[in-house]
């Protein structure tokens, strides 16, 4: 392996463990209003209005887009918040997460 400045052997596998990260995905459907999706992206993912429109249109055209990458706990919370807002407004919007 490498040697550090003190000339000690450094184990190549002794790297700091990083926590796994999770992509939060927004899915398209035919019924959720575009303006509701933009509102969700602004409120829950701290996007500017222009950014939110861009991501919403990507989902609309391609079927799915990554809206953020977070730790497991934060990703779970974001998914739950999106699903709760959609449920309250009776929109079929779906949000899910997957390991990066
Ligand atoms: N396809 C929807 C419409 O035409 C808009 C939409 C965009 C819905 C993104 C969901 O995640 C979504 N009203």
Automatic annotation (TrEMBL):
GO molecular function: peptidase activity
Gene3D superfamilies in alphabetical order: 3.30.1390.10
Cited InterPro entries: ClpS, ClpS_core, Ribosomal_bL12_C/ClpS-like
Pfam families, alphabetized: ClpS (PF02617)
GO BP of this protein: protein catabolic process; proteolysis
Residue span, Adaptor protein ClpS core domain: 18-96
Region listing for Disordered, in residue ranges: 1-16
Family, as annotated: Belongs to the ClpS family.
Subunit structure: Binds to the N-terminal domain of the chaperone ClpA.
Name of this chain's protein: ATP-dependent Clp protease adapter protein ClpS
Taxonomic source organism: Paracoccus isoporae
Chain's gene name: clpS
């Amino acid at each position: 392996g490498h040697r550090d400045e003190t000339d000690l052997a450094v184990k190549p596998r002794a790297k700091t463990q990083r926590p796994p990260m999770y992509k939060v995905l927004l899915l398209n459907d035919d019924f959720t209003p575009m303006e509701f999706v933009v509102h969700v992206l602004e409120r829950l993912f701290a996007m500017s209005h222009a950014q939110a429109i861009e991501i919403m249109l990507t989902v609309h055209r391609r079927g799915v887009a990554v809206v953020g990458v977070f730790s497991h706990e934060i990703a779970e919370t974001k998914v739950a918040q999106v699903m709760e807002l959609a449920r309250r407004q009776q929109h079929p919007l779906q949000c899910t997460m997957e390991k990066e």
